Each structure stands twice: as structure tokens, then as C-alpha cells.
């Protein structure tokens, strides 16, 4: 069976694994990211690749290729990491540098959200012509859509769901979706409405579970605002699959049901079948690795 190496580079860790043609994942390794310099990150990337090969017991040239997902702006065609706010890579030629070590391998890089969308696409058994949209809600918010194995790119800002403007009832103002409901925004709402008991996003959800009235107000407002954004996505794209990921959603999967309930109040009757297409990722945070490896198989 063909196999590839999938890599997921983040500001806190670099993960790697063997991805097989049946989209199974094995030989998972990860290291904390050394962000002291561009070269330090690159050397860690090499170390993760070699560690995966060592665990698999084979040479890197026995793989079909290496797929890499990384945050921020990526020049896919040129293989360059253009800008990442949590990595010291500024127009760093990732593919060219890797080719110095692995000249025979097919190497593909892409934005991490796009790689996660591909991971969901390859595991969801999507039919030809069906559109899958992946939405991540974490420290930030973004989306990516795949149809017939192709990422819908547009002119460059396709999928920037977090940049869309919504009305935030908690702020009583229009703002970017990311500013209103991403993880840091939930923590901010908690600090404003609840006070010193809230230090981070998790605290708001813990208080919600305990029946705290202010936390309930925050979560209900946040899910309503997310629903407005998904309503827009349904009206613009009408995806066959809308899959949620990211730490906010994956740690609180019941939020999907709350978003669905809010959508039931906002969608037109003819659109409401879209509610059944909402789901939480089942890939346990590994969709980025799966997508990255699958891109070169």
C-alpha cells in the first residue's frame, strides 16, 4: 500500500506521521517547536521526518512524498512559507530547502486549514461533485472548501470566514466573526461579564457546565453569532458537508447542536435540510496530518 509522510507545523509543536492510501495514520511523532530561528524550525522539521522514517523502519525515499501544513500565508506553487505570525519564517523556501535533502520526493505545502479540510474530505467518502466545507474555531477562525479534490481558492482570500462581519449581541456592535466568537473573544466576554473567575476560554465553558447564568448568556450568544456566519455560508455555497474542528468545537462538540438549533430559526424552510449536514470532526485533531499526507498519495 502506498504511504506518505504528513507533517503539521504549529507554533507550539511539529507533528509527523505515516499516512497510508486508506487514510490510516501510524508512527505519530511530535516535538515542541523551537522558534528561536528560521533554521531551528527547519532542522526540527528534518528531525521529525527522520524520526517518522526510523519508526517505520524504512528510507524516506520509500514514501510517495511529504505533505506539510503550516499556519499563515503560503505560496503553494512556489513552495514558500510567506508569513506566519507564530513562526520565524519570512518568505522561507520550505520546498526548495527540503529538496536539498530529498531531491527525489514529491513535496507539497499548504495552509494548515486547507490541509485539515483535505483530511476531512479524504475521510468523509465525499462523492464526485459534492462540496465539503471545513470550519475551524480555535484561537482564530477560518474555513476551507474542497470539491472534486480541489481547494476552492478564489483570488486569495477564499475561506477567511473569521474576517466576515457579524453583529455581536454581547458587544452590541458589528465586528469580524473572529473578534466576536473565537477562543480569545469567549475569554474576553467572560472577563467582562463574570470577572476574575475567568482567566481563559476553558473557564467560561466550565462555568457554563455549572449553570452560571452569565456563562450561559455568553455561550448562547456565541453560538447564535456562529449560526449567522454558517447561515451565510449555506446561502453562498450550500455545502454537502459542513464539518467543524478547532479546539473550541472539538473540546465542546455539543456546540454543533446549539448552532443547529439557532440555524433552525434563521434558515428559510427550503434551506433547513442543510442542518443535517453539520457535524463535528471525527479525526481527533489529526485531520491536518491526514490531509497533508493524502495530498501526495
UniProtKB/TrEMBL annotation:
Pfam families noted in UniProt: ROK
Gene3D superfamilies, A to Z: 3.30.420.40
InterPro entries xrefs: ATPase_NBD, ROK
Family: Belongs to the ROK (NagC/XylR) family.
Protein name: ROK family protein
